[in-house]
Amino acid sequence: RPARGKPRSPGASTHPSPLLAPTAPMPVAVPLRGVALTAALAMASIVGVGALASPPPPAAAAGAGAVPDGKNVQLWVVGCGTLGSLVAEQWCAAHPDHVVVAETSTDSRHAQLAAFGATPRLRSERQASDAGRAERVVFAVPPSGGARGTGASPEEQAVAYAREVELAAELLGEGPGDRARLVFTSSSGVYAEQGGGVVVEGSPVRADARAERILAAERAALAAGGAAVRLAGLYTETRGAHGFYMSRDAHDSTPYELINLVSYEDAASAVVAALARGEAGRVYLAADGAPLSRLQICEAARLSPEYADRALPAFRGTEGPEGKVLDASATREALAWEPRWRSFAHYMGSRAGGA
């Protein structure tokens, strides 16, 4: 690692915390007087439907995304972007006889979702009669989704995002109370550590509006008897931090801040493992265990033919945070989960062989 020395070992963590401890119990935020309308607008934007829109016409509600009446849904995935689609695909592959609803804000992925056996569904097609139909629910709508541009404050955006988790929880029917039948895909970005120390599931979190938007949604999931999986930085061959770094000749940031990573594929398998073996009310952590500096990420990216001919960018910063080291060993043991890709370099190196 350039310049700053080695990160502290796991034994020297500055954040001792209970194993798999959930975030501190706090009530989910509720709209304050005078902001309810703006929060509703933010929620409409998050889910990709018109603000305060009327219910869809009968033809839309009974379209290709309709689940036959009386048929149980074994898994309902709310938010089928890259991550949610992979969760649905992995579940369909493992359980080909299950009904898997793949809910999206637009129909751009519907053909892809139907191809591997899922039932595509628009968020706007969700009906009151869908309540209680699902045995399991995954909420994979990113917090970066559409509340921008609505005029909503950070507080209102947090309210809207948490409310969507609560609405997703209403899809759940009866089931065992000790198992996490609702899994919220969270972010390791909520952790406060920036000095190179080791972070585990229950380590301290940040106290700012960006983190609170995610933490409020986490609390909603835990209150509904679900679990949260805090994910490290996600990537594919062409998506992720490396794509941004390699797109420019130079950056003002330092080269040495540690970035924790996990492939989209492995993140999805961690969510599937949480559905199968996770406990209600728990927070889990998914990372490959091999954090890299910004410069090391760029060096690893060049192992792939996609970036092999590109020059390394310059990182001009001399002062900045050192990052963190995510230790997900407790989650791996609890969920019997192991990432396929042991590091970003392992993944990118495999691309040369067409894996």
Task: Explain what the structure shows.
With 355 residues, the chain is an alpha/beta fold. Helix content is 30%, strand content 15%. A seven-stranded parallel sheet has the order 3-2-1-4-5-7-12, with helices on both faces. It has a two-stranded parallel sheet with strand order 6-15. Strands 8-11 form a two-stranded parallel ribbon. The longest helix has 16 residues. The relative contact order is 0.16.
User: How many individual β-strands?
Assistant: 15
What is the mean pLDDT? 85
Helicity level: 25-40%
User: What structural class do you assign from the helix and strand content?
Assistant: alpha/beta
Query: Which regions contain 5 or more consecutive residues with pLDDT less than 50?
Result: 1-19, 21-45, 47-64
Characterize the overall form: globular
Q: Report the order of strands and helices.
A: HHEHEHEEHEEHEEHEEEHEEHEEHH
Assess the beta-strand content as a share of residues: 15-25%
By DSSP (H or I, 4+ residues per run), the number of helices equals: 11
How would you write the strand order of the largest sheet? 3-2-1-4-5-7-12
- First-last Cα distance: 28 Å
Radius of gyration: 21 Å
Q: Mind describing the biggest β-sheet? A: 7 strands, parallel
